[in-house]
Amino acid sequence: TIAEFRREAALRLAETSDGAEADKYFQRAIQLCAASDLCSYAHFKRAWLLRNMNRLPEAVEEMNLALYDSK
């Protein structure tokens, strides 16, 4: 479906981007996700991005979502 295509496109763009641009795409992918595995993956990747941007409190929060969010 178009929603799945948009979600996958956002993930791929996030993985090939850096910094704030990647963060924007990860957030978009998270908004579009429906399956828990994919949501967890997007949260996990965003957590590492935030950690690498020295945004540690946000990174910890995002990792908690990756581990415990049942979306």
- Ranges where pLDDT stays below 50 over 5 or more residues in a row are none
Please state the average pLDDT score. Answer: 90
What's the story with the biggest beta sheet? none
Helix content: over 70%
> How many DSSP H or I helices?
4
Rg, rounded, reads 11 Å
Strand proportion, as a percent range, falls in under 5%
Oligomer: single chain
Compute the separation of the termini in Å.
Answer: 19 Å
User: How would you describe the shape?
Assistant: flat
Order of helices and strands: HHHH
Class by alpha and beta content: mainly alpha
Total beta-strand segments: 0
SSE topology sketch:
Elements: H1 2-15, H2 19-32, H3 36-52, H4 56-68
Question: How would you describe the overall organization of this protein?
Answer:
This protein is mainly α. The chain has 4 helices and no strands. The longest helix is centred in the middle third of the chain and has 17 residues, at 36-52. The protein is flat, with a radius of gyration of 11 Å. The two termini are 19 Å apart.
In short:
The protein is about 80% helix and about 0% strand. By secondary structure, it is mainly alpha-helical.
What are the key terms here?
71 residues, mainly alpha, 4 helices
